[in-house]
Amino acid sequence: MNRLIALVRREFWENKGALRTTPLVIGGIYIAFLLMGLFTTAHFDNEMYTFREAIRLLASQPEELRAAHGYEVLLGSSLLFTVVLAFVVFFYLLGALYDDRKDRSILFWKSLPASDTLTIASKLITAMVLAPLIFWAVFILTQILMAIIASLMVLSVGENPWTLFLSVVNPFKAWAMVLASYLAASIWFLPLHGWLLLVSAFAPRIPLLFAVLPPVIFAILQIWITFLKTFTLNTSLFGLIGDWIANSPAILFVDMHDGQGGLSLGISLTGDFDHAVTLTNMLDRLFSVQMLSGLVVAAVFLAGALWLRHRATES
Q1: pTM of the model
Q2: Distance between CA atoms of 205 and 203, rounded to whole angstroms?
């Protein structure tokens, strides 16, 4: 266990730009846009009259409505963090085993008292647990700072931020839901993680090309052959991957119904699962037949990555 923890620490320090700096930059963007919005309002709004009236209108709404709206805002502000986290994990895993071969340091790392199994496990834990936790922690810090700034603005127009939203909205519920969605999505996308590690273990160069091109070629050939046989376009690998992303337990999309916007798990393009943002719906995905088949595929990819890692040399 101590060796695994040490390997995870190594992954963090070698990739702290992506794992630590990136979420901090996103949080800074949120704060910057909030301050820009406030300064713009103060510049054009005569004596903050419009802002004051908007706050009074919000205060006149029922507490239940303010609580529901605040909860949606807290969840919705995680969308940018979620999308960027996905890109960070994607490129981190793509280079996780490739970089050691590229800079010819693989023999040094293989000489240390840590097995290839532990090495791959540390990279999976970094991608599936450490990265989401760091993004989640920065997400919470960002929301706390935004709440402080918003409270000062509300106080500046003579209203009470505590009774307006601080005591009404339960941030812990929203934060817990975001964390649960991050961890559930890490498990849901385990087949993709396994594929990226497999590519990272064998790609001679440009691993992104090897990760994307084979599935694209296979899907195009699949569509072409099916069309020649049936003159119809049945579901291909493109459709399978699309459905997998659409059914993700991550909070990814703002769904519109009757003019009302609501957040959804994945993208509500399929009827395989309920897309409402609840813990039950996340667990439904993780204990489904789709997840079971995904775990089998992930096991094959990870076994291949481990086999290639065993036989890797600096050449």
Answers
A1: 0.88
A2: 5
